[in-house]
Amino acid sequence: xxxxxxxxxxxxxxxxxxxxxLDSAEPHxxxxxxxxxxxxxxxxxxxxxxxxxxxxxxxxx
Amino acid sequence: MAEQAQGAxxxxxxxxxxxxxxxxxxxxxxxxYAVSRILRQGDAASLAALRVLGADALAPYALDHRVCxxxxxxxxxxxxxxxxxxxxxxxxxxxWSYRGLVEASHSYLSGGAEPWPQPPQAAAGWVTADPxxxxxxxxxxxxxxxxxxxxxxxxxxxxxxxxDLARGFVRAVRRRDWLQAAGVxxxxxxxxxxxxxxxxxxxxxxxxxxSDGEPRVAVHVAAAHRFYGRGW
Lengths: 61, 232
Description:
By secondary structure, chain A is mainly alpha-helical. Chain A has 2 helices and no strands.
């Protein structure tokens, strides 16, 4: 009689996969917080428009 | 991902094919539905897919027409219940999903000679204990139980957290997690007193559109529309 020796192994592997699919972790979300984005943009704008840091003059004529 | 036998079709593909068949049947399209036609008896991957889909594999039988379960349908469901029972260390979601499949078998495949197994006890403490984002995630995993008449106790408990589920629906849409959004939206369709300001009908239509035809999302949206008249 021919028996399928792979069947129990396949079922065991699939059982673990079934459990994983049934109770899968929440995927990483792709969303942006508008307030955080606004604050970041404001900070970037302030950095761009700020005058350069005053430095002491080294060459005396 | 689990190891696949050489040449075997991935389980995710079998699930997607079966879910497509369920969604078509719920929309009243395609051939008359038979679970044994889309998920074969004795095929380990088909039985595993049936276990993952849970009660959704029998959802078309909850409709009044076009479908008529036969002996082969009963056999394939019995095989899935036997092959993939929840183990001793199984998650609560797994136990609830199994329970949903058993309850659906009792409700929709009741004409057979042999009795179905009794539904296992499933803990429900998480319904009140979980914070709302976790609750929404878990409820979306159990969207198949949002069929008419199934898990009435769970539906009553979830009705006390309708506002939290509405928050979860919005959060899932913002995270572009379409499967979770569709699952939570489907449960909200079953619950009374959903806030009008949520815009559930337009939300479900948006999720369907944005999911790009993902089969399990299609099942949830079709079920919400067919059984509870929500979405369009």
